[in-house]
Structures
1.
Amino acid sequence: MPAHPEGFHYDAATGRLYVNVPDHRQIDVLDRKTGQRVAAWSPPEMRSNFPMALDAAAERVAIGYRNPARLTELSTADGAVTGSIPTCGDTDDIFFDAVRSRYYVSRGEGAVDVIDRTPEGLVHHDRIRTVSGARTSLFVPELDRLFVAARAGWFGGDATILVFRPTP
């Protein structure tokens, strides 16, 4: 890697690994078999790419940029931007819900953005309040739940896991 990697996802069907490399303002695409980089994508004017989500079935990878604050979808075939929508500057995690064709974007300022992928493009569906600093999250499709970690000191003491059940 040319610099410190951040978010990454592996597509088992293609054998490709998608890796955010924010210090180089790019997404590296690696071939698992050869270990070689096969592509490097750098959407113009986008910086601080940290979280990432993969929708292998739709051949899309979503990148959370902090500057400008956007969720941007790229084609896994060639890195072309297929959609983009504003979000917050403290995006930490992104997950794709294949059942609902939706992204969950956890925001350090105390919210989760719910963004739907529609035939017309990416659409802001909802913003769910959490607490400031609760940015680490995990979506578990098998449980149909989004878990968001709130650090100690919130809610009067110990660290807490907030549990959200997506709705249609």
Note: The longest strand covers residues 47-55.
2.
Amino acid sequence: MRVRRAVLGDAHVDRAEARKTAVDADFQRFITEGAWGSVWARPGLTPRERSMITLALLAALGHDEEVAMHVRATRNTGASLDDIKEALLHVAVYAGVPAANRAFRIVKDVAAEMGETP
């Protein structure tokens, strides 16, 4: 939970925890332990590098809400808009221009919402 909060921020995690019910409690525990406790907590990559990899994968798979969430998380991971741009150029080459185009739109919208100039 410490890593999840460090990356996504307390407000996001608090909202997720407040919405948790018996239906998704096991799922929430699974992602906290698996994604945040096992993968994101590993020493092999920095949070910035993990952030860029995560954004590229989410963009390639078309998971728009998760792309937006992880763009917001870059405030906490140290990934810059230039880093995101580079990751999305890889998405364009390896996963397709439409996936990257959609992700670039999301990044610009979220960056503007965060008060950053895309």
Note: The mean pLDDT is 96.
3.
Amino acid sequence: MANVAVVGSQWGDEGKGKIVDWLSERADVVVRFQGGHNAGHTLVVDGKVYKLSLLPSGIVRGGKISVIGNGVVVDPWALVKEIETVRAQGVTVDHTTLKIAENATLILPLHGELDALREDASSAVKIGTTRRGIGPAYEDKAARRAIRVCDLTDTELLKRKISTLLDHHNALRKGLSAPLVDGDKLLAQLLEIAPKVLEFSDIVWRRLDEAKKARKRVLFEGAQGAMLDNDHGTYPFVTSSNTVAGQAAVGSGVGPGSINFVLGITKAYTTRVGEGPFPTELFDEVGEGLGARGREFGVVTGRKRRCGWFDAVMVRQTVKTGGITGIALTKLDVLDGMDELKICVGYELNGKKIDYFPSNMADQAAVKPIYETMAGWSESTFGARSWADLPAEAVKYIRHVEELIEAPVALLSTSPEREDTILVRDPFED
């Protein structure tokens, strides 16, 4: 019996929500292991739409334990609001169904404010942050001045930690000509929200060890995509955490041997939100068409996504850096009706052909895609539930993608509905 980590293989927005929900029905425990409420999953279950940012996707299914791991940065006010929203939709959220790691870092109002202040003040590189305080919270965690869930249990400790935190933040705000943070007000805010968070606080690493001993199926749910990884992505246009599958162990308190299958969610074309290099981006009516048919708008921010052709070089690289066992190919139907399709199979950089995505920021911006052209198909793939339902040219496209990225298709998603899925290889039975 395998435990599965689900990660994005591109820049996020690959359709992880549906796949995680599809897998979570058979999992016993679903774990979020990195990121914050800057990422979103849209789930469609029996016609009802759930939009989740912090809560693991398993929360909408009864009989599961949902875990927010220590690698996640938690905005307590956003968390409580999201819990209230899903409860209003009939979802049971209590201390038996939701566990939050006691050593998870908190996002405070000052983090979101600093996010916006620095982005607005920057005259050089703008990252395209969601301004939700994710980066500044991770900075405080790395600098050992963060306030964590467990700190909410001790008022005197909380006072001292706030004082230490504000020594740093108020100096920054003074330099940015922003009002200083009132420590007493922040303390009052935290003490007010504390009971609503501590209700779910738990020793998560122990709960996961108990699940392992009981041979429970655990699903590790990533946010964003591999090219937004703080080490392996398009730095500095990345998120503030590691998004590759290796973080699933670190961000939840289990050993790497607890992860048996890594499923990389992969869109049949490429999209990106925010700033940063995008070699296959399309600025013509083809790109506009992909965006319109794919309804490419961010779940959390509503921002329009940039669209382009499938980049096999990039995905092959994320297969390697993320240890991806197999992919779930999504949104194939968006390519329906196109006369021809292009796939990026290499890059040209300074007159030379390369077969990898470079780390240097200037080189990333300078690479030019080298394309192969394939025939499209006129038939619909929407809602297909077997290979026999797919046009021959669509099957050829899929097989060529597998060959180029050096990873097999384990799942094929053909609509937002969870039943419209072709299972090739069951990750849980690997």
Note: The longest strand covers residues 340-349.
